[in-house]
Amino acid sequence: MALKPLKLDVRPLIAREVYVLAAGFVLASAAHLLRMPNWLGGLVVATVLLRIYLAARDQPLPGKWLLALVAFGTAAGILLEYRTLLGREAGVSLLVVMLSLKLLEGRSQRDGILLATLGFFLLVTNFLYSQTILTGLYMLGCAWLLIVALVTLQFTVRWPGWKIPALRAGALLVQALPLMLVLFLLFPRIQGPLWGLPHDAYAGLTGLSDNMSPGSLNSLIQSDAVAFRAEFRGRIPEAPALYWRGPVLWDYDGQTWTAPRFVFNVNEMPETAGPTIEYTVTVEPHNKRWLFALEMPVMRPPSSFLTRDMQLLSTTPVRSRMRYDMSSRLLPAYGADDTEVMLQRALQLPKGYNPRTLQLAAELRRRHSDDRRLVDEVLQTFRNENYVYTLSPPLLGQHAVDEFLFDTRRGFCEHYSSAFTFLMRAAGIPARVVTGYQGGQINPVGEYVLIRQADAHAWAEVWFQDSGWVRVDPTAAVSPARVERGIASALPSTDPLPIFVRGNFAALQSLRLTWDSITYSWNQWVLGYSPERQRRFLSSLGFDDATWQKLAVLLVVGAGLALLIGATLVLRDLRAVRGDAARALYDRFCRRLARLGLRAGAAEGPLAFAERAAGLRPELAAWLRAVTGQYVAIRYGGDRSVLALRELKRRIKEK
Amino acid sequence: MNHHDINAVAGQINNIILGKQQQIRLALACLLARGHLLIEDLPGVGKTTLAHAIATALGLRFQRVQFTSDLLPADILGVSVYNRDSARFEFHPGPVFTNVVLADEVNRATPRAQSALLEAMEENQVTTEGETRPLPQPFFVIATQNPSHQIGTFPLPESQLDRFLMRIELGYPDSAAERALLSGTDRRTLLGELKARLAGDDLLQLQRAVTAVRAEPALLDYVQALLRHTRVSPDFSHGLSPRAGLSLLQAARAWAYMDGRDHVVPEDVQAVLPAVVSHRLTASGGENVSSASPAALLLQVAIP
After folding, report:
1. Within this chain, do residues A334 and A479 fall inside the same structural domain, yes or no?
2. Which residue, A450, A481, A506, sits at the end of a domain?
């Protein structure tokens, strides 16, 4: 049915269209609005409300000059607020504000279509902040609403009510599904973002850091954010064996333990015997270079290296979710051949701190010439005397270790590991603090271990002449439950802990675990669909060694197929109307005539066209009449026989 | 009986009313499609002559009723008069009991009188004094309206207009036809000399043959597209009714038959459409009155 061509630039927007555009815009920018400074968010909301009011009252829109002034003023405000117009925060704010002003300015249907299309761009910016399933669903909802707006804008004549555009937008989304799948699976994957995310995109990522000062782990333990997940091939080791090694801290200044800036790499993996534990780690982005592995790693993932103190470091900060295969071996000790320089570093103490501890160390040394005996005695002391494991220890002053060991005796892993390491060094035993995660929650739904930030832990390593570095966890001496049953069971119930870590609510807990399992699959299969995975998927299809050229061909073919599927769905109804074979032949005949300069009008009957064309090209008259006559006999005369169709083909081929 | 006869009739009438081939064909198609015809035109352009010629050439009886403001239904339908000899009321049939009725200036009569005729047209029967009497078959009404003098008239309401299958305008003859008219013989004489080409049930046979003309799904698609367009386009205040659709198809069948085809092609629909729909469509009065014309309608709807 030939409707009149749409006059895009003249038809004004009507109230209904303004409402749906405003709704789509607000929904797509809602998450941004909450993040933006109040004055900006308020401005955007006020602009949208003003536009809705003007549309409802059918009032004239504000003038161009006023809008230009507001636009420039806001841009200046954003510049003042963020000190830039680029970057994630400022850029997104600018986009949101300018779109709201565009909404205020939009008069015509053309503006409306532009706005809805820009809305899709706004939608994408949400993924700069979050890529979870919920965000995906939320964006799907936004996309649907924007399509509803686009469909609504197409109704020039008779408004059928909201149901029709709503359903049609849904149908469009469904029709886009095959193409979406093909593009997702086949579009060449590039590791990391294609154009580099704005520099401020990684602010606010939590995780272990390269230093440990009083309270730094404490804040981490309050967080139930996921640190990483580990999927074991084979049996999951017992909880006390699950020491996930992270930053190793060597240097102490009296307050803060820090990791050295530079550590030697291990060029070849330590040769050890015994069974290995095989597993796959999926680490959440934390913007640092540490990768986590069970003590001790015996291999390294691609583009990472292992340091002499057994830190697994990625070559670049982990800024997107990373997945790697690992194997570890539960070693009793390692690194007996460490150099004198390294051992000296593991003995350094800041001058003028903790005199009482130095005294205690000297006394211990006097009693025990054997290092192991000395260590045992210290652990005995922790175990037997009145030391308390708590997340809310009293504040410590300048001589932190002294005050902790002799006065307060209340603390958690960072206090114990710090004090123990200090004591060891004071006694002349090389020691260092190791931070990382301990334990984790076994998710029975997805059969993997879930390690949250709350599982952060700090322990110590001491060096013995005969064996090398040995792990000593003074916290385990104080509170064995911390290591055996997790942090929640080790703490008095009055201590603040994230509700999900404590896990008192069984139903909530299992819901949470199910949800985490879904998230894990989403991460693995959707967000984690890396070049490597794509290559594996393609080779499972029989395309080994897929170059980008092959990928491009495959993509075109796949997209073509997907479009074909979509088109068949769409055109099925259409074909029923215009579809018989005679019509197809006749259409081809008409196209041939069009190349001869004889164009049939859409509203011109075939016989009338044949006569007109015969008048223009008398030499073709007989052919034109013969073909058209046969076509009309089939299509309107009801001659459905195969012979008639064959005759039509024959007549068309006569010329 | 075949389409040659009806074309011969058209030829005969063409000799009497000059330069109006298209309108004569439409009028005959209207008759073949069992519809009634409304002619809207000025006096003296040959409306009566056309009606008379059609009746004569087809061998039908012809009656003319001049509609005036004091015309009563009984003047059209007939009246029962008491007969002394038989001591009974006897029905004296009115002028409507014939094959072709020319209702001249139908808009001059009161709605009461108009509806008497219009009901007869619709029902093909007349009910007076509790008795129903069938009208002769075929029954064909040609009504005329004078569009220029609307004072003291009762224009037919839209619902009544819908009962006419077609509305045509005769218009002035072109100069060649006018010269032939002026130099030729008197029309009345010619009319008197006109021979009936058909007789008896011939016309009924033709009408049945028209009903048998096939309309394939492809053509019905086109008719529906046309109807749909009038219903969704903002140019028209009302779309065409289903009855209008049926009329359009029937008229197109008659036109196809007169062309010697046993099936309807889109050109048939296009040929009859202006006459069939022009009195049923009202422009919505938008800025674009020209796009509300039947001709524009045809241009806007693609043939599926």
Report:
1. yes
2. A506
Same domain, A336 and A402: yes
Does domain B212-300 sit in CATH 1.10.10.410?
Answer: no
Of A577, A605, A638, the CB nearest to B216: A638
Q: Tokens 């829109």 sit at which residue?
A: A61
**Is A594 found in the same domain as A496?**
no
**ipTM attached to this prediction:** 0.84
User: Are the C-beta atoms of residues A89 and A82 closer than 8 Å to each other?
Assistant: yes
- Residue A561 within a domain: no
Q: Does A610 lie in the same domain as A493?
A: no
Q: ∠ CA B219-B222-B228 to the nearest 5 degrees?
A: 145
Does residue A420 form part of some domain? Answer: yes
Q: Which of B233, B237, B263, B297 to mutate to test the interface with A (most CBs of A within 10 A)?
A: B263
Rounded-to-integer distance, Cα B119 and Cα A440, Å: 92
Backbone angles phi, psi at B82, to 5 degrees: -75, 125
Same domain, A597 and A500: no
For the domain made up of B3-202, give the CATH fold: Rossmann fold (3.40.50)
If you count them, how many residues does chain B have? Answer: 304
Tell me, yes or no, if B218 comes closer than 8 A to chain A by beta carbon: yes
Q: Does the beta-carbon distance from A637 to B263 stay under 8 Å?
A: yes
| Residues A104/A60, Cβ–Cβ less than 8 Å | no
Which tens digit of pLDDT belongs to each residue from A451-466?
A: 888 888 889 999 888 8
pLDDT in tens, A202-253: 555 667 777 787 777 777 777 777 888 888 888 888 878 888 988 888 888 8
- Residue A494 shares a structural domain with residue A599: no
Respond yes or no: is residue A473 known to be catalytic.
yes
Q: Is the pLDDT of residue A145 over 90?
A: yes
Which residues 6+ apart lie within 8 Å of A521 measured at CB?
A: A446
Identify the domain boundary among A123, A143, A159: A159
Contacts of A345 (CB under 8 A, 6+ apart): A250, A251, A260
Measured in angstroms, the CA of A2 and the nearest CA of chain B are apart by 6
